[in-house]
Amino acid sequence: MIIAVDAAGGEYAPHEIVKGAIKAAQDYDVGIALVGRKDLLYVQTSRHLRKLEMSIVDASQTIEDNEPPVEAVNRKPDSSIMVGIKLVREGKASAFVSAGNTGAVLYSALLGLGRIEGVERPGIASILTLSIATPVLLIDSGANANCRPNYLVQFARLGTVYSREVLGVPSPRVGLLNTGEEEGKGNRLVQETYALLKQTDLNFVGNIEGHGIARGTADIIVTDGFTGNVVLKTLEGLGDTFLKLRNVGQVFSNAYHMESRHQLFDTGLGSLIKRIDYRESGGACLLGVNGDVIIAHGRSQAKAIRNAIGIARESVGRGVCQIIREEMAQPAPARS
Amino acid sequence: MIIAVDAAGGEYAPHEIVKGAIKAAQDYDVGIALVGRKDLLYVQTSRHLRKLEMSIVDASQTIEDNEPPVEAVNRKPDSSIMVGIKLVREGKASAFVSAGNTGAVLYSALLGLGRIEGVERPGIASILTLSIATPVLLIDSGANANCRPNYLVQFARLGTVYSREVLGVPSPRVGLLNTGEEEGKGNRLVQETYALLKQTDLNFVGNIEGHGIARGTADIIVTDGFTGNVVLKTLEGLGDTFLKLRNVGQVFSNAYHMESRHQLFDTGLGSLIKRIDYRESGGACLLGVNGDVIIAHGRSQAKAIRNAIGIARESVGRGVCQIIREEMAQPAPARS
């Protein structure tokens, strides 16, 4: 299995991306196709190329984070993003991982891979690991700022396949992100979506409020891409605040405090900090396009890139795309 | 100054509400009018009634948290909420504090007090104290699930008055909650709102992403009531998760660990936990109605109620309502 990796995308490109890709090639049973400027990448990887299953695919252009996606993709046909997507389309890679401009990845994937039949809008499924229990999928976490009820129902179906096939949840509980638990709460979008979700055969458990996200009362949190993105970044922001408390641990790093230190981390603080740190977590899956595309955080460092490649490998290994194709091709069965 | 307090609203009513009200009467220079069932309240307060400036105002009905607000308010004219609002309208109280059904408080305030001229929709301004710096106002945090750009501009103006007059920020920075920093990001609502905000004389600093909320890059975060409510509750949920880590502190409560314990709290963990705990924080102001109305958290305990009464006192003392009336009466001056 070859995973294409955008070596030019993200705040720490190319150095941390390359480092993460090398680590993934060492840790997992995958080959890596690094996409970016060949001359630059060769210098960094030459001593690994022979030992690992690793190649460089030249892409002369880079799309910056602040560029308007559609315009940039159209103006730069040889961007690392588009070249990576094409590798997937042509079957030269099984998946594409990028920490670059999210909008550009989304638009390139739509252009290069197209939508799966039955999917009006692909959604970004972010894997939240806030609670001790199974990770929670937040979909859509940023692909579609303006949504219709139908899109949200499709997100629920896409998320259900992913949660079941990759995260191993037998009958994933679908929650609709809302301002209250009762039916009828929220804005027009969620009110209409609620009515539609009730009619599907999905395991719809009703509305989930903001504080329910971390509680694990649903395996999939369905929302529009505007709200989802704001929520995701809010969680990150609070995570940042807590990361600054890392010195909590440092206080106890003195040898004579070792006992206390272990006790501290036993309370869960250490693992919680780790779980909300996007520098350590993997990436989000773009679900609904014809191919496996993983969107890593723009601030991903080596460890996060390695983990994102791990997520890509899982998605490919479980055949998520094919299963989505089969399930979306059938009309949504109504609950009897 | 008399503050009317809804003794029947909230998860811990009436016991914790009464306790908090008594504490406020002791700590602040305010009189309290407890609104609820006279017989019940008399038992709890009799020994304080003579010593403190405290009275009981009878209200025979209670609106439960899960009741549909409009219907409940119409069906229960003698609810503690409506009776409290009427005390404000009749000038018998300067403000009303309730931890009850938010929708019912909102609707009762609209019915009983009415909107200030120039305000199409009142907004709930929640005071977030996540960062070390000045508190951040989140408006609207739940009054209006469906918003128009105009409403958001009005929220910005309402929030500006509150931030300046009560929180003491000379020229409050207004940020628009969005999915990216650049103009043009987000859904149609925020795109149109951005264009309008640019034309006002408000100190509009542009878009703020989710992780910007805790960073204090804006003094006022403007958003629709759906997104605002979800974000507020998401923050609460993560706060809950961290509160469970209180045992972090307990680990060090043994005497021989006292030194470590102080060091731990010096790192800021203790104060951060305190700041995100809504059981300790005050309440949110309903801005844009003709009277001071404070919405406390449904799970408020005595301390939170006391603090909410403190917020009410500040609002009244600073004449927030009158200043809003004056400023909203003028047409919004365009930035030259």
Arrangement of strands in the largest sheet of chain A = 3-2-1-4-11-10-5-6-9-7-8
Query: In CATH, what is the class of the largest domain in chain A?
Result: Alpha Beta
| Main sheet: strands, sense, barrel of chain A | 11 strands, mixed
Oligomer description: homodimer
- Classify the helix fraction of chain A into a percent range: 40-55%
Report mean pLDDT of chain A, rounded to a whole number: 88
How many strands of chain A? 11
CATH evolutionary superfamily of the largest domain in chain A: Isopropylmalate Dehydrogenase
Outline type of chain A = globular
* CATH architecture grouping of the largest domain in chain A: 3-Layer(aba) Sandwich
Low-pLDDT ranges of chain A: 246-267
Q: How many domains make up the coordinates of chain A?
A: 2
- Percentage beta strand of chain A: 15-25%
What's the tally of helices of chain A? 13
- Greatest interface and its participating residue counts: A-B, 57 and 58 residues
Given helix and strand content, the structural type of chain A is alpha/beta
Task: Tell me about this structure.
2 copies of one chain form a homodimer. Chain A is an alpha/beta fold. Chain A has 2 domains: 1-117 and 288-316, Isopropylmalate Dehydrogenase (3-Layer(aba) Sandwich); 120-278, Isopropylmalate Dehydrogenase, CATH 3.40.718.10. Helices cover 44% and strands 16% of the residues of chain A. Chain A contains 13 helices and 11 strands. Chain A has helices spanning 15-27, 38-49, 69-75, 80-89, 102-112, 149-165, 188-199, 225-243, 247-251, 258-266, 269-275, 302-318, 320-329, and strands spanning 2-6, 31-36, 54-58, 95-98, 123-128, 136-139, 173-177, 203-208, 220-222, 283-287, 292-296. Chain A has an 11-stranded mixed β-sheet with strand order 3-2-1-4-11-10-5-6-9-7-8, with helices on both faces. In chain A, β2 (31-36), α2 (38-49) and β3 (54-58) form a beta-alpha-beta unit. In chain A, α4 (80-89) packs parallel to α5 (102-112) and α6 crosses α7 (188-199). The radius of gyration of chain A is 20 Å and the shape is globular. Chain A starts with a strand and ends in a 7-residue tail after the last helix. The relative contact order of chain A is 0.17. At the A-B interface, α8, α9 and α10 of A face α8, α9 and α10 of B.
